[in-house]
Amino acid sequence: MSTTAVPPAKTTKPEAAAAFARGLEGVIAGESAICSVEQGKLIYRGYEIHDLAANATFEQVAFLLLEGHRPSDAELQRFKAEVVAERPLHPAVTAFIESAGGWLASGRAVPMDVLRTAVSILGHLDPDAQDNSVPANLRKSKRLLAKIPTIIGHMQNVIDGKAIIGREHGGDPALDHAANLLFLMTGAKPTREYARVIDVSLILYAEHDFNASTFTSRCIAGTLSDMHGAVCGGIAALKGSLHGGANEMAMEMLKEIMRDVGEKAIGTKAVDDWMQRAFDTKRKLMGFGHRVYKNGDHRAPILHKLGRGIAATDSKNPGGHPALKWFELGEQVQKIMLDKKNIHPNVDFPCGLTYYTMGIPVPQYTPIFVASRITGWCAHICEQHANNRLIRPLSLYTGPTETKWNG
């Protein structure tokens, strides 16, 4: 006797409405083998974030996310050589970046806008642009991983009014990924300590499940659009202050507190009073809280410790105050938030402090986030294309009742 499988009943709209979750909070929207975001841990393809931050390099993590397993020494060397070879930009992309200087200076554009457009131009130039096959997607992933730091570096050179650094080779082929990013921006070879801090920050930001920008990328990929288009959507989503832009806004908030209360007031009631005024006016304080983590972001203390270590050895930073003062202020703000609101910092808070201490311009914080998260986005785009279903949720209609046009 044969049997026929009965397909599961479709959920009706009233049934779906009963499970409505604003902002899709708590809703499982798909399956993924890439990352698990949990209350107690953050896992990339089976490896926990503290383990990776302590023992891996960003290139190893990028390989893990894109190729799906921990690389052997030979595989890592092959991967690094492939990425280094793809660092240089096509002259059309460099010309666009140079032409954007006026927009950046006038405020009509910000670095994330320029980065998004530069990636879009890359899509016109990539020979695999319209090919969504697994091999083509992997090749495009490596090209984007390689070229985004070059875009950021060239853009900072234009902002600073300096000659383009590393135009021919996309930086220094002898430098690792994180160190080359800093070299492209400044023209100076970073210290081992600075290179390691940036490397770890890239590891921490590389992947984070179905966050807003990744979900955006997957929605775009789910229509069978191309990787460059999906990444442009991810950049646009990450730009927002409630997502990737939070690290910039967190630092701007700390700079405002420092201006208002002064360096000598750190550790005093003046900072508490500033925070209380922010609470009373219901001001949103960036760099705190997380949609998933309710007991603290696992990544935040890792970066805070590394950043504080850098600050403790640097006598001054671009803010004109002893670098450690910024961390002392940040720690006081964190304590107030925890004591009065029971809200922990997320990774964006120590990121702002750490990058500022290292002299990285605030408007480049979120582009550097892209230089990391491109690995997660591309891994998810590849996964979506390989096992696709169009992402199409329902909505609850709250408009007027049905009315006759000629009634």
Any overview of this molecule?
- With 407 residues, the protein is mostly helical.
- Helices cover 58% and strands 2% of the residues.
- The protein contains 18 helices and 3 strands.
- It has helices at 13-18, 49-55, 58-67, 73-85, 91-99, 101-106, 111-125, 134-160, 177-186, 192-205, 212-222, 227-239, 246-261, 269-280, 299-313, 323-341, 348-357, 365-386; strands at residues 35-37, 42-44, 47-48.
- The chain has a 3-stranded antiparallel β-sheet.
- A hairpin with a 2-residue loop joins strand 2 and strand 3 (47-48).
- Helix 10 runs antiparallel to helix 15 (299-313) and helix 13 crosses helix 17 (348-357).
- It starts with 12 loop residues before the first helix and ends in a 21-residue tail after the last helix.
Please write out the topology.
Layout: H1 13-18, E1 35-37, E2 42-44, E3 47-48, H2 49-55, H3 58-67, H4 73-85, H5 91-99, H6 101-106, H7 111-125, H8 134-160, H9 177-186, H10 192-205, H11 212-222, H12 227-239, H13 246-261, H14 269-280, H15 299-313, H16 323-341, H17 348-357, H18 365-386
Antiparallel strand pairs: 1-2, 2-3
Helix pairs in contact: 2-10, 3-18, 4-8, 5-7, 5-8, 7-8, 7-12, 8-9, 8-18, 9-10, 10-15, 10-18, 11-12, 11-18, 12-18, 13-17, 15-16, 15-17, 16-17
Which key features would you list for this structure?
407 residues; mainly alpha; three-stranded antiparallel β-sheet; 18 helices; 58% helix
Summarize the structure.
The chain has 407 residues and is mainly α.
Strand numbers in spatial order across the main sheet: 1-2-3
Instruction: Report the major sheet.
Output: 3 strands, antiparallel
- Secondary-structure-based class equals mainly alpha
Tell me the total number of β-strands. 3
Distinct helical segment count: 18
- Low-confidence stretches are 1-8
| N-end to C-end Cα span | 59 Å
Based on Cα principal axes, name the global outline: globular
Helix content class: 55-70%
Strand percentage: under 5%
Mean pLDDT figure: 91
**Helix/strand order:** HEEEHHHHHHHHHHHHHHHHH
- How many whole angstroms does the radius of gyration measure? 23 Å
